[in-house]
Specification:
Length: about 100
Amino acid sequence: MSKAPKARTLILTAGVTATAVTGAWYGAGLKTKQEIKEKVKARAEATPADKMAILEQTRSGLMAKKIGLEQKISQLEARVARKGGANVDDGAKGRRF
């Protein structure tokens, strides 16, 4: 007699948990879609000056990444040269831009 209420409780708990998880997942998906639509709408309604500002921000971020990567490449080349490793000069000076 003790097994029936335990099984019922377990099934009920699993059902409620599954419903809560599914609802949270679905709600998060709806919110993400809404945010994407808002961003697309904002970009479509942006003035040319706003678009230029966005592009400049993106460019500055990419240039910062490029400088960081170039520094890492130079450090790696220097380390390989110090250790007497393989020649890293492949005609393109180790870079492919």
